[in-house]
Amino acid sequence: MTSKLQVYFPMIRSRKEVLNQIYSNEELMKIFETWDEKYQEEFLDFCTGVRGVKMLYDFCAKALLNPEIYPERLDELVSLLLGMKVKIIKVLPNDNTRIADETSLLIMDIVVQLKDGSIANVEIQKIGYAFPGQRSACYSADLLLRQYKAVRRKLTKETFSYKHIKNVYTIVLFEKSTREFHDFPDNYIHKFHQTSDTGLELELLQKFIFVPLDIYQKSHHNKDIETRLDAWLTFLSSDRPEDIIALIDKYPDFKPMYEQVYEICQNIEKVMGMFSKELYEMDRNTVRYMIDEMQSEIDQQSERINQQSERINQQSEKINQQSEEINQQKKVNARQKEELEQKERDLQSALRRIEELEKRR
What we know:
The protein has helices spanning 15-23, 26-34, 37-48, 58-64, 71-82, 132-154, 213-219, 228-237, 241-250, 255-264, 268-360, and strands spanning 88-92, 106-114, 119-127, 168-176, 190-193, 206-212. By secondary structure, it is an alpha/beta fold. The chain has a domain at 52-266. Helix 7 (213-219) packs across helix 8 (228-237). The longest helix has 93 residues, at 268-360.
């Protein structure tokens, strides 16, 4: 049976052809049978066009968006996200300050220099890290410092000026975004820059763009692809054949990128190796995500407990204060009672004295 995508990509093979190739090779058969059934079906579905290829598979993203081979692709994506035309002139080496475990959650992490001297760090994350704002701020600051040091080395002390330091853009796309983004279900592009509270304008250089692709998918489900940015976000986030067909019908220049992936899929041995690695990383990511989620819940519960404890302490302090006031009032009452009783005794004594004096008369 011909899949919808085979009409557009004749190189896609049938399920029978793919399975024959797998089971005719003992090593491939062993690898295939170690996968859970759902992953076997996922692999067969994208190889045979039943579902489209996930462009956020690690091997797809790196092959299609390599700026050293296809600079025009990342040029356009970054330009659309920044809202201005940019051109990549150089790929910069990544630093070695990344936390080791972070590499497993990154699909792509590219640092590029733009024509105007600005630096852009483009990340695609399988699962969003906890504390995305703090993390991005740290790596942005590191890139800014790297740029500063590079400019200082290039220029003399007399010619150096801070005007030579250009913007640093941190662009993060999430396949699965963290919970704070889901508080804004109608927004899938979040742009941040520093501003003053007085209206004073200073160029503070650090800019941030966060794109939760899972939220884009939910908000654009069954909607038309209207813009080039829609086209790119659909390309990166959707493996639905209907979306892929709608995309290449409206923007045919995306078709060669899908063809490139299906050409890769012709080498079943290579693709199965990459898919196995993808599954391994997926397991690690899931564990890491669950740990982050549990830690977040623990932190929230701890904060609630601390708040409740603070309220209890305040109430206890108030009760103690009220108890002290009651004790003081009791003392006042006791003293007043004693004074009244003394006055009563004095009065009785005075009355007896009066009676004695009257008897003597």
